[in-house]
Amino acid sequence: MTYSNKINFRFLPSRLLGLVFLSFLVLTFQLPVTSAGLPKMDGVPTAKPEDVGMSSERLKRLDKVMQGYIDRKETAGVVTLVARKGKVVHFSALGERDVESGAAMKHDNIFRIASMAKPITSVAVMMLYEEGHFQLRDPISKWLPEFANMNVAIPSPPNEPVREHYKTVPANGPITIQQLLTHTAGLANGNRGIAQSEYAKAMAEFPLHETDHDRMRRLAKLPLSFHPGEHWEYTLGTSALGVMVQEISGMTLDEFFRERIFKPLGMTDTHYFLPESKLDRFAALYSLDDDKKIQLAEAPTAESRWVRGPRVQFRGAGGLLTSPRDYFRFHQMMLNGGELDGVRLLSRKTVELMTTNHTGDKPIWLTGPGYGFGLGYAIVTDQGPAATLRSEGSYFWTGAFGTVFWVDPKEELIGIMMEQIYPYTRLNIMPDMISMTYQAIVD
Q1: Does residue 28 have a pLDDT over 70?
Q2: Same domain, 289 and 330
Q3: In 139-270, which ranges are E strands?
Q4: What does the mean pLDDT of the chain come to?
Q5: Which of 89, 132, 169, 254 has its CA 20 to 30 A from that of 326?
Q6: What is the full DSSP assignment across 10-58?
Q7: Coil vs helix vs strand at 92
Q8: Is 347 among the domain residues?
Q9: Are the CB atoms for 415 and 81 separated by under 8 Å?
Q10: Distance between CA atoms of 81 and 79, rounded to whole angstroms?
Q11: Residue 24: predicted pLDDT
Q12: Integer distance in angstroms from the first to the last C-alpha of the chain?
């Protein structure tokens, strides 16, 4: 008796037919796998962990810890990527990108990265620096005159008839490009400061028809929280720098990023506004309730503000969407000293300048002790007080919707984690990503 290897679908029960068709879809559409057992993507070189001094067995702990957050319903899904010595050795997608539809999280899903856009804007600024357009100590008012002659808010003296809860005095100097890159300019902000309530009134809304230059004009009307250079305070200074990039280049920030950074680096999935053709890869956004359980904050549909028009707001401080693959390529360029696959965006010396501590011993309240700040990056300056396994000299930042990356030049290591949860600060998922990565180093 002979058997045919062809399936006659007419004689299969309907339920079994459905399972066969589903299996066909899974096999057809899942990403091809490399010899290292990782998903195959253009521009993502891979290796077995043991080839670069890491343990495959120990890296399994990373997935186990991430899966725990999903099982506890503290996050919907997570993508984690670890690369060492230029090779990706761990690239995992767990959970769901959209719980409501049941869509699985995949390696090529696209995420809102919020403040993780700041390093990209900072690179754009330093590309123009390398072209001779300015020096770091130049005042920003040369390109944004609205920031000239700034005043500083100080508490109202009890013996003076002042109507407001503060009075203003002239700033002791101009705001410089370096101060904006290091968050020491003193701009009013929503975190702290005497004029915090005024900031909330002036800057709370993000109408899509408004350009980022319009927002910076409103910000410039508010008094500074302190004299430029005096302290560290997280602000929208990177948005002012994004406007400066536009003024110098004659391009929108979206155009500059696309033509000068994204296309050269092959970052094909990085956008300010997502093309509707990529909606099936867009991760839903969740918030945490009082019991630390996820609830839908924004569905990944064409109605999302990251998709719909009029598409004129390109913020230097945030607002980009990207995939783990694209963001890895950007920071592999930085780890390589400004070059990737024969394309050079920055010189090695400029990358060194960006990733050096510029803030001395000023407290960086957002990270805690053991950290300083460079040009667009937080820097590990003292591993003990920082309580981190990341080497001194590592540079990093996070995004408000649960994304984090770091680059460790000493270990030649890049770590990236992407989820979509707000606020992420109620979870230990980011420090867990870091510790689970480093415990896998065995060389």
Answers
A1: no
A2: yes
A3: 151-155, 166-170
A4: 92
A5: 132
A6: GGS-HHHHHHHHHHHHHHHHSPPB-TTSSB--TT--B--GGGGTB-HHH
A7: strand
A8: yes
A9: yes
A10: 7
A11: 40
A12: 57
- Which residues, other chains included, contact 172 with Cβ-Cβ below 8 Å and sequence gap of 6+? 152, 227, 228
With contact defined as beta carbons under 8 Å apart, do 115 and 186 qualify?
no
Are 219 and 360 within one domain? no
Q: Which domain holds residue 162?
A: 136-249
Given pLDDT bands bounded at 50, 70 and 90, which one contains residue 162?
A: low
Residue 261 lies in a domain: no
Tens of pLDDT, residues 237-266: 999 999 999 999 999 999 999 999 999 999
- Residue 124 clears pLDDT 50, i.e. is over it: yes
**Pair 246, 213: CB distance under 8 Å:** yes
CATH number, domain with residue 53: 3.40.710.10
CA distances, 353 to each of 100, 122, 340 (Å): 45, 12, 19
Same domain, 329 and 419: yes
Residue 265 in domain: no
Asked if the structure places residue 443 within a domain, the reply is: no
Distance, CA of 79 to CA of 14 (rounded, Å): 35
| Number of domains the chain is built from | 2
The Cα 37–Cα 26 span in angstroms is: 17
The answer, yes or no, to whether residue 269 has pLDDT greater than 80, is yes
Antiparallel, parallel or unpaired: β 421-422 and 87-98: unpaired
One domain for residues 244 and 280: no
Are both 293 and 401 inside the same structural domain? yes
Alpha helices (H) along 41-114: 56-71
Helix (H) or strand (E) holding 345: none
Q: What are the pLDDT digits (tens) for 328-377?
A: 999 999 999 999 999 999 999 999 999 999 999 999 999 999 999 999 99
Q: With a cut of 50, say whether residue 25 has pLDDT above it.
A: no
Residues 109, 144: one domain? no
